[in-house]
Design a protein that fits this description.
This protein is about 90% helix and about 0% strand. It is mostly helical and about 60 residues long. It has one domain. Helix 1 packs antiparallel against helix 2 (about 25-64). The N and C termini lie far apart (about 35 Å).
């Protein structure tokens, strides 16, 4: 399932908030790991979108 970068950043923020509110160390660490994972997914989604746009522009330029 593909997620948008914005969705991933929202999930990262929610994980960060959950980590801040956690009273148990293991829960805090789990949420911080989840935050990092969501941020990496957002970064990948950004790269994918940029590549898709670049390829579409190159294709359009070839068709002209």
């Amino acid at each position: 399932m593909a997620h948008t970068a914005d969705y991933c950043r929202e999930r990262a923020a929610a994980a960060e908030q959950a980590a801040d509110e956690a009273s148990l160390s293991n829960v805090r660490q789990r949420e911080l790991r989840a935050r990092e994972t969501w941020l990496e997914m957002a970064h990948r989604a950004d790269r994918t979108a940029a590549m898709r746009d670049r390829l579409a522009a190159e294709k359009a330029a070839r068709e002209v």
